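Two records follow; treat each independently.
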Amino acid sequence: MGCIRPEQTSVDEVDRLINQEVVMTEQNHPAGVSNRTREATMKFTLKAVTVAIAMAIVIVLYGGLYTLEEGLQAIVVQFGRPVGEPVT
């Protein structure tokens, strides 16, 4: 579609050209979104979910670790009962 100059085109002609463009867009992409855009959105969503799951796993694993400072002792317990010797 070329450049439309108001002094050369009537209102009806402009309306017809706009409607023609809308019909062409609806025929090519009924939802108004191209397949390429959908694929990009799905890839981004998959990456975001993967990163979120990886972060959750790291947080859970890190939460199970504890480091003692120098001079402190700890007792390892399992179900509330001491297991093994004190750790220094």
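The next record belongs to a different protein.
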Amino acid sequence: MHRVLAGPGEPFRNSLAGRQCYADLHFIPGGELVPLRKGWKRMNINVRAELFNQFKSAVAAQGKTITQVLLEFVEDYVRKHAPQPVSRPRLSRGGQE
């Protein structure tokens, strides 16, 4: 089941037939939920409050946002750990190479 927004000003409800999946929405200043830009997905993680506050302070000290730092981490992780495509041996054509 996905959590979906029932309509403007209405609470979320569990449904597969709803209009918007929660993973495709984000909050803007003022607390309003709006659709994410096309081609983007939302990721959520649970962390201890103390760790979150320490991370937020460290990020702010660098003049960055939490989103910027986490995106940098995810992009770097994928570069380092993404599966490599399997190379296939070239087949010769009737002995000609």
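Discussion point: The CA atoms of residues 24 and 39 lie 10 Å apart. How would you locate this feature using only the token line?
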